[in-house]
Amino acid sequence: MKKLLFQFDTDTHPSVFDTVVAYDGGADHVIGHGGLTPENISGLVEGTIFTRAPKDKKNTAIFVGGSDMIAGQALFIAVQKHFFPGFQVSVMLDSNGSNTTAAAAVAKLASSGTLAGKKAVVLAGTGPVGQRAAAMLAMEGADVSITGRKMERAVLACNNMKVRFGVDLTPVEAFDNAARAKAIEQANIVFATGAAGVELLRAEQWQHNAQLEMIADANATPPLGIGGTDVMDKGNLREGKIIWGAIGFGSLKLALHRACIAKLFEDNKQVFDAENIFALAKEMA
After folding, report:
1. E strand intervals along 79-220
2. How far is CA 226 from the centre of its chain?
3. Tell me: the pLDDT tens digits for 183-199?
């Protein structure tokens, strides 16, 4: 029986990236639907849960994606509300690659040093990856701050993660490189999660920071988010700091994404969100 993955995307066009990884993860067919909301998925979900016998339902799964994590989270919850005993399929949330990217990066940081009790700053952390990474760092015992160009966005991001994960994060307004350099003065860990091609810190703004131990940068598009690092860094030492570049931890991100897809087809009751995706990332790291 064919393994069918239904890609439920909150954007107009389902992500090509997610489609490719789904096939690489073991799906036989990937069927994408875009522009989905909690209000228009009823028939689609019913189509996944009513069409196969109980023993065969493990061969159908749902992947929730899109660029908007809040919209994705709402859709993910709405999908599961249509399930009932005997009629459900496995489902995964990874809007904008946020869960798998954040989990891979934080798992690599955890493999490189202690996170508990450390001060961590997620630069430009108001987006999907930044928010999830901040929550994961906090769950590992770090004291975490999120910077945003506007305080209200940083506050909103922190509040969202408080509601979802029960973690306390500190919002910091950091409009430019100088403000971001000030924000990391006492940091032991810095994770840059800004927009592609935007340099958040120049090399000289972190290289002489005696407090700083580890850096990760999720940006693979020049210029990198952290000047003086390399996209290929895999725990390399630069100026006495351990560096993880986007490609450096990206191999784990892709392997993790594929592994989660494969697990969706093990039975029909898998639910993959940040917590168990992060747990799997730590095992794989």
Report:
1. 90-93, 119-123, 143-148, 170-173, 189-192, 214-217
2. 19
3. 999 999 999 999 998 99
